[in-house]
Amino acid sequence: MRWIVDGMNVIGSRPDGWWRDRHRAMATLVANLDRWAIAEGEQVTVVFERPPAPAIEATAVTVASAPAAAPNSADDEIVRLVRADAHPGQIRVATSDRALSERVSDAGATVFPAERFRALIDPA
Predict the structure, then answer these.
(1) Is the pLDDT of residue 19 over 90?
(2) N or C: which end of the chain has fewer CB within 10 A?
């Protein structure tokens, strides 16, 4: 199973003050994903609307972003990744965005709710 994570949607699934420091929230998500991916042997790509600045490094996780930041650009990039994959049925997309959920389901991927995914990788 391959995972594609709607980064800001998963971050926003828990009201923990993430909005005060978006970069720190992004770095924390990537670190949690990295630990989880290594421990579980999962292949994970996290997608943000724009590249994190400064860049966020990871060992096992691919940190991706939309080609140009705009409304729904991360969603468009996630759909592009699903459609470009030879086996979209082997992809789970972590998001609670209804429109994105419909788009990736139509492309053959399955959807895993953001809040449940966040609890999986970062138990409260």
Answers:
(1) yes
(2) C
Distances (CA, A) of 90 to 29, 67, 110, 111: 23, 24, 8, 11
| pLDDT at res. 24 | 97
3-state secondary structure 86-113: CCHHHEEEECCCHHHHHHHHHCCCEEEC
Q: What is the pLDDT of residues 28-76, one digit of tens each?
A: 999 999 999 999 999 999 999 999 999 999 999 999 999 998 889 999 9
Token pair 């691919």 is found at 62
Domain 2-121 bears CATH identifier 3.40.50 = yes
Domain locations along the chain: 2-121
24 conformational bin, left if phi > 0, alpha if psi -120 to 50, beta if neither: alpha
Whether 12 contacts 103, CB under 8 Å: no
φ, ψ for residue 109, nearest 5 deg: -85, 165
Average pLDDT over residues 68-90: 95
